[in-house]
Amino acid sequence: MKKNIIVIALIFIVPIIAYAVLSQNQTVSAAKYTEGQPQVIKFSSKLCADCKKLKTCFDELKPRYENKINFIEYDVESTEQEISDAIDKYGISLVPTLIFVDKNGKEKRRTEGFVEKNTLESHYNELLK
Predict the structure, then answer these.
(1) Of 64 and 82, the one with more pLDDT
(2) Which CATH number fits domain 2-128: 3.40.30.10, 3.20.20.70, 3.40.190.290, 3.20.20.370?
(3) How far apart are CA 104 and CA 7, in angstroms?
(4) DSSP H or E run through 9
(5) Taking the domains of the chain in order of start, what are their residue ranges?
(6) How confident is the model at residue 2 (pLDDT cuts 50, 70, 90)?
(7) What's the Cα-to-Cα distance from 39 to each of 23, 91, 109, 126, rounded to whole Å?
(8) Which of 6, 25, 12, 9 is nearest to 92 (CA)?
(9) What is the pLDDT of residue 79?
(10) Which letter does DSSP use for residue 111 in this model?
(11) How far, CA to CA in Å, does 84 sit from each of 37, 63, 87, 92, 123?
(12) 93, 20 Cβ separation under 8 angstroms
């Protein structure tokens, strides 16, 4: 019975909390965009456990791909209008979310939730093909 209540809470309450956090018109740091390069856009929160785990993998891989991929990071807890615009543009409803955009500006992949380091690296390499 307790497991069922926990599952129901996760299914219904977590998305509501994520939406409340994301809908607060808050932003963060966008990296310098280089036209013609693929992008990885990350939406996350400092309060999110999966975001913290993903940040470790993301930060470990980022230096290897910095000159090949534009990395744009949005912290949904920040207070700028830019995050609201980005949330609307990409239809973000959960964190962490990663959006992989090719050099032509077309979204190639989207992940929601934690992604293992080797999977993340595979997505980066696929984006560079």
Answers:
(1) 64
(2) 3.40.30.10
(3) 40
(4) helix 2-22
(5) 2-128
(6) low
(7) 23, 17, 11, 12
(8) 25
(9) 73
(10) E
(11) 24, 28, 5, 10, 26
(12) no
Q: How far apart are CA 99 and CA 41, in angstroms?
A: 5
CA-CA distance, 124 to 39, in Å (whole number)? 9
Q: What is the pLDDT of residue 94?
A: 92
CA 117, CA 109: separation in Å to the nearest integer? 16
- Two tokens, residue 129: 């093909």
Question: Is residue 38 pLDDT above 70, yes or no?
Answer: yes
- Reading the block at residue 60, the tokens are 């470990």
